[in-house]
3-deoxy-D-manno-octulosonate 8-phosphate phosphatase
Amino acid sequence: MQLLNKSYLRAKEIKLIIFDVDGVLTDGGLYFSDEGMEFKRFHSLDGHGIKMIKDFGIEPAVITARNSNNVAHRMKNLGIDYFYQGQSDKVVAYNDLMAKLSLEPKQIAYMGDDVIDLPVMTKVGLPIAVANAHDLVKEKSCIITESSGGNGAVREACDFLLKAQDKYDEAMSIYLT
């Protein structure tokens, strides 16, 4: 994970991390059957990372520009309470989250991959880009993951937050007994 600026100190204050879907939680590919049914591939490491941060007091949220039943199903499976679909202007959902959770921008991280994510990424305390993000998104980020979207990048970010907040060892201890 490539750390830029003072990302470790910023990560200590994070109470909410917002994820984009296509290109972050998935590999960004859009797969369609002949009948028009859409498929997406999610990585199990990412899902477990999301569950761990939630268990240790960091709220996960998702804001995506597209609408998809399979994404709604995955969010329910992960227990994500704050899920916004069809958000062409992601700042609207971001502002709603800040108000609902009474958070300041410095307490929020956002993980994205494309320029549609920049209006929110430039407002948060900890912007994170996946390895295969657009160059401008990487330029505006404090952290760039080693993994590509849909291939463990979200897990990297989750582990980083847990480590920065001194919760990682406790989170892992249940697997080492």
